[in-house]
Amino acid sequence: MSDLKGLIFDVDGTLADTEQEGHRVAFNMAFSDVGLDWYWDENTYGKLLDVFGGKERIRYFVESFPNDFNAPADLDRFIRDVHARKTVHYISLLKSGSIPLRTGVARLIREAREANLRMAIASTTTPENATSLLRETLGEQSIGWFEVLACGDVVPHKKPAPDIYEYTLKQLDLPSSDCLVIEDSESGLKSALGAGLKTLVTINHFTRNHDFAGAEIVLDCLGEPGEAFTVLSGKAGGASWVDVAFLERIHSSP
């Protein structure tokens, strides 16, 4: 087994609980902007999270959920417009400090950087959403800590297809055996596994009932000294929080 050289993070639900009080709220604000009476409650949004990509979620809602929406002739343009409005609202929520990083995330990123682990992001969120989250929580300089920001439509097929992780590995110029992924969802896990990557999962409100077969370990969070994680699947070897040494053990496990 090769040494751990690269750490790849998903964004939404992994770095921060962005979905419930971030993206969902921003979508509803965008719908109001364009005169739609749509409202995505937690139950509806939880179902829509099975579809990766914001524009894809809007289209799926139009085509698959009961509604009296009269689609415009140029539906693609309409969806792009709504999604752009949603992004503006989401960035505003970030700037207000309403969306903090999850437990242990800031610490682990700093420790990984100090240990000279190469870091990347692989996400279906837009580049603007990813960089804004980093900027508002870790500071402007943190964007440069990540060698690769693989986001949005940079690949043709979104998670659970392996494309985004294969693209990230190519940009890092590292084999999958040298890297470890941190994800939060079943689709994200399938995407990483499809690219041959070992994966640590931290669940969130929307993904707690997902099937995480194939993950190296499943936790409720990354934990902090004095704020231990809970192991849902796998073996933590007596650890209470995820640090670089913990990642190296997970990566080297048979």
Query: What is the overall shape?
Result: globular
Largest sheet: 7 strands, mixed
Query: What's the helix-strand series?
Result: EHHHHHEHEHEHEEEH
Approximate helicity band: 40-55%
Adjacency order of strands in the biggest sheet: 3-2-1-4-5-6-7
Structural class: alpha/beta
Query: Would you tell me which CATH topology of the largest domain applies?
Result: Rossmann fold
**Strands, count:** 7
Task: Report how far apart the termini are.
Answer: 8 Å
Q: Could you name the CATH homologous superfamily of the largest domain? A: HAD superfamily/HAD-like
Report the oligomer. Answer: single chain
Proportion of strand residues: 5-15%
What is the highest CATH level, the class of the largest domain?
Alpha Beta
CATH architecture of the largest domain: 3-Layer(aba) Sandwich
Radius of gyration: 18 Å
Low-confidence stretches: none
What count of helical segments does DSSP give?
A: 9
Mean pLDDT: 95
Count the domains: 2
Question: How would you characterize this protein structure?
Answer:
With 254 residues, the protein is α/β, with parallel strands linked by helices. It folds into two domains: 6-17 and 100-252, Rossmann fold (3-Layer(aba) Sandwich); 19-95, Putative phosphatase, domain 2 (DNA polymerase, domain 1). The chain has nine helices and seven strands, in the order E-H-H-H-H-H-E-H-E-H-E-H-E-E-E-H. It has a seven-stranded mixed sheet, sandwiched between helices. Strand 2, helix 6 and strand 3 form a beta-alpha-beta unit. Helix 1 crosses helix 4 and helix 4 (75-95) runs parallel beside helix 6 (127-138). The radius of gyration is 18 Å and the shape is globular. The model has no long low-confidence stretch (mean pLDDT 95).
